[in-house]
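Quick entry between incubations.
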Amino acid sequence: MKEILPQFNSAVSIDCVLFGFDGGELKILLIERNEEPFKDWWALPGNLVGEDESVDQSASRILHELTGLSDVYMEQYYTFGEVDRHPQGRVITVAYYAMLRLGGDKALKPLTTYAKKAQWINVRELPKLGFDHQHIFDKGLEKIKRRIKHLPIAFELLPEKFTLTQVQNVYELILGKKLDKRNFRKKILSFGVLRELDEKQKGVSFRAATLYKFDKRKYAKLFGKEISF
Amino acid sequence: MKEILPQFNSAVSIDCVLFGFDGGELKILLIERNEEPFKDWWALPGNLVGEDESVDQSASRILHELTGLSDVYMEQYYTFGEVDRHPQGRVITVAYYAMLRLGGDKALKPLTTYAKKAQWINVRELPKLGFDHQHIFDKGLEKIKRRIKHLPIAFELLPEKFTLTQVQNVYELILGKKLDKRNFRKKILSFGVLRELDEKQKGVSFRAATLYKFDKRKYAKLFGKEISF
DNA sequence: AATATAGTGTGTATTTCTTACACTAAGTAA
DNA sequence: TTACTTAGTGTAAGAAATACACACTATATT
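Done. Structure below.
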């Protein structure tokens, strides 16, 4: 069964666009490759799908290996299958995105053997990427722009407790445009998935904002009702 | 380069959910398999991706082989990669959907060697399908329900000239619910992508409806403006 | 010629959503 | 106490979505 038949001659990989937010800028995780092809180039983190794991499991494993994180909202968004996208053979890649909060709680520890380093890089200052990874990234950004309007993915970028201004920042960074504060607040609160806390922001040198939490329970109830952020 | 390395030990396939509309019912094309596994079962048409074709090209080729058609709006919607989805080895499948007008112009001639027959079957009366094809179909139907609201895919199901009632029928079949005639017309016309013809429906035993055409030129102009059907 | 049938085609009032817009309140730092 | 910085709030106008009912017309039947 596991002998290699002639038609079983291709490989499937996962590439991840890991978006991160550190409170200020929208970043993605890139690795600097240490192996051919594209040695010394920057690239999206990715790897081959193992024999005994589904593509979803593979994506989780890869995310875990690269960041130490588990239990992250991650979603497949497209499969890239051009013939010559990989110089060493036929590799079709399934792209996933994930959203991570950076810093704060636990520092991320990317542990890759095939990379010189892994680094969070501002999406507005991306270096030249190997393979077709620029294209994969572009499609990923496009996708989350659309999804952020319908799914609560933005909250994955934020710490557990956050201010409404922080939520707005995330939306503005992803959508790439300014939003009106009053309208934004009205709308985001109208979905009823945020819980206002009895707590204020600390350590700021101005009026402290009220903290909120994303309420998973309320969200689960609404789901199916097609809510639009 | 084309020797088989141990990591190149999987296969990638395409499965197509071909939606068809004959004026009355929403159907999909199924084949009755003539080979193991799942001999004598119904299944979605699909095939392995060739070495020298991209996954998109592969999808077009397969559609062509199965229906004789080319130049059909077809779109990738998800990749299914469970470990045991194919009993003969690791096969990851990329799913596409397409929308076809049935009958009328040219009859479809499915030419498959690995199938006993190909047949258009009402989506409300699907037989038991082999592999994970029921699941692939379910996801496909879900997808087009969402897409039909934003992209003009419904017109792919209709003949070149159609009445507004026919358009509404297609929407109702896909969405699975009744729509209000007045509101539907107002909305569909408001997008400005239909051109009213100087022609009426023929051969009906009641007041003949005005025929319309989908205006690709107008649609192309609007594209980018995020129109919502 | 009258009538039954079946689908076409239209208008308006109501509600809901979107957008635009500017000031006061609170906390901190000097 | 004052100056500074961000938090937080309401309303009006316009646009879009919804709900809803009746007259028109081509044909087939008698």
